[in-house]
Design goal:
There is one protein chain. The protein has 128 residues and is α/β, with parallel strands linked by helices. It has a single domain (2-20, 44-121), classed as Nucleotidyltransferase, domain 5, CATH 3.30.420. It is built from 3 helices and 5 strands; from the N terminus they run H-E-E-E-H-E-H-E. It has helices spanning 2-6, 71-83, 103-114; strands at residues 11-21, 47-55, 60-65, 90-94, 117-121. The protein has a 5-stranded mixed beta sheet. Strand 2 (47-55) and strand 3 (60-65) form a beta hairpin.
Length: 128
């Protein structure tokens, strides 16, 4: 696929999610020997979840939500992305996250392929 992108035959994107919060989270700290430190309990804060599609030339498309990420969110984001004009066939590389491999995503895959947008799932992780 990389060769196809380098030759200008496809648009190649890598997609993944992340989450951001303004509440810092440091699960460890330093203290003097014999001194006990207390940390306040974490309180609920708004979290922004992001799905990004990054091309190797650093073109980035980002979708966000304050709700938990689900397969339906992935479908909505990818449907919007597919609806945009693309001059060449598009390949989107995804990992094997459950929200990528859910029925909602599989249900749209054929219609996206009709529009020349293809999903490529990375192989399962292997420690060998």
């Amino acid at each position: 696929m990389l060769t196809l992108w380098v030759c200008g035959l496809i648009e190649l994107y890598f997609a993944d999610e992340t989450g951001l919060t303004m509440q810092p989270y440091v699960p460890y700290g330093w203290q003097k020997k014999g001194q006990r430190l207390g940390l306040p309990a974490r309180i609920a804060t708004k979290r922004i979840n992001l799905l990004g599609l990054l091309r190797l030339d650093n073109q980035l498309t980002i979708y966000h939500s304050e709700k938990a990420l689900t397969g339906a969110f992935v479908v909505d984001c990818l449907a919007d992305f597919v609806a945009k004009a693309h001059a060449k066939p598009v390949v989107i590389v995804l990992d094997n996250s459950p929200i990528h491999r859910c029925q909602a995503v599989y249900g749209q895959q054929t219609s996206w392929e009709e529009k020349d947008v293809y999903l490529f799932f990375l192989p399962a992780y292997s420690p060998i």
